[in-house]
Amino acid sequence: MKTQLFPALKLTLMCLLLFVIIYPLVVLGFAQFAPSKGKVPFVEYHGRIVGADNIGQKFDQDQYFNSRPSAVSYNAAGSGGSNKGTTNPDYLAQVQARIDTFLVHNPTVPKAEIPSELVTASGSGLDPHLSPKGALVQIDRIAKIRNISKEKLVALVNAQTEKPLLGLFGTEKVNVLKLNIALEALKN
Question: Where does the signal sequence lie (predicted)?
Answer without folding.
Answer: none
